[in-house]
From TrEMBL:
Protein name: Transglycosylase SLT domain-containing protein
Gene3D superfamilies assigned to the protein according to its UniProt record, in alphabetical order: 1.10.530.10
InterPro entries: Lysozyme-like_dom_sf
UniProt-listed SUPFAM superfamilies: Lysozyme-like
Length: 310
């Protein structure tokens, strides 16, 4: 397609030159002058042409145009390469989409969101629950570095256990929760650790894929290290994005944003091939995505005072 576009540009310039050169033959007795303008060629006979002279001139110009390579190029319905790229078909499909579906599609090709501190960040920080403040800093730090929206990182923190910080009772019960639910595990559901609820095989996969980031870190460290847990969640989202985002079928992209897909993958990565085949998420993980939407709103509220995210 790029070659065809270049050929069109070059052929158009040459055709204008050929038309200028043909003017002396088109109006041999009228001393006509021809000049190139932005939208074409301007032909000005020095005296008024008769009807027969106009007809004769038109025949000369027609022959010049019909025998030029540009005429052959423009007779084609589309540029060469368009069909191979599926551009025409895709444009027709896009034209039939709702605006929100287009927004969701665009999220897969958009530049990563990064958050930067606002001038009044210190006063805004004081408004945030002291237990939550470190999470915000970690989400922004690791999200910006890994190319994952920090708001999504913070939403995952809330999904996986952060909501338990919202009240005294939940904070006090969190230790028992970790011991009984997460660290107990069973043969069907292996145990998980830390603020972001990560299983050992997932953490080891991150160590293998991102050795520099997780050098000297072990899965057991997650239990008492929220910063490490948030870093692990961030890089797990990045791993899922690197591995799957380029293969998401359009049918799925039209229904879910990239962030929603990554959240679904974080919750149930083993089911991603099934989602691709079905063109939709399963009913259970759809509930997780709805929870993520709520958590994203909360993350946006937390970050909006301290940071500008775009």
């Amino acid at each position: 397609m790029a070659s065809a576009t270049t050929n069109h540009h070059d052929a158009l310039a040459d055709l204008r030159t050929q038309i200028i050169n043909a003017t002396s033959r088109a109006f041999p007795d009228l001393g006509a002058k021809a000049t190139v303008r932005s939208m074409g060629v301007n032909v000005m006979p020095q005296s008024e042409a008769s009807d027969s002279e106009v007809v004769a001139a038109a025949a000369v110009y027609q022959d010049t145009i019909n025998t030029h390579p540009l005429f052959t190029l423009l007779r084609k319905a589309t540029f060469e390469g368009m069909d191979g790229l599926g551009i025409k078909t895709r444009l027709i499909e896009i034209a039939g989409l709702r605006d929100d579906a287009i927004v969701r599609l665009d999220s897969y090709s958009a530049e990563p969101v990064k958050c930067s501190l606002n001038p009044n960040c210190e006063s805004e920080l004081e408004k945030i629950d002291p237990d939550v403040r470190p999470w915000v800093g970690s989400a922004v730090k690791y999200g910006n570095t890994a190319g994952i929206d920090p708001r999504l990182v913070l939403a995952i923190v809330y999904n996986e256990g952060g909501y338990r910080s919202d009240s005294f009772i939940e904070r006090e019960m969190s230790y028992a929760y970790d011991v009984f639910i997460r660290e107990g595990g069973n043969l069907i559901r292996p145990n998980s650790l830390g603020l972001t609820n990560m299983k050992e095989y997932t953490f080891n996969e991150l160590k293998s894929k991102f050795p520099a980031e997780f050098a000297g870190k072990n899965w057991s460290d997650l239990k008492d290290d929220p910063d490490l847990a948030i870093m692990a969640a961030t890089y797990n989202l990045k791993r899922i994005q690197d591995q799957y985002a380029g293969e998401v079928p359009d049918e799925l992209k039209e229904k879910y944003t990239l962030d929603q897909f990554l959240a679904a993958g974080y919750n149930a990565e083993r089911n991603i091939p099934d989602y691709f085949e079905a063109g939709d998420l399963g009913p259970v993980v759809q509930g997780y995505v709805r929870m993520t939407n709520t958590a994203l709103d909360k993350a946006q509220q937390l970050l909006s005072g301290m940071y500008t995210c775009k």
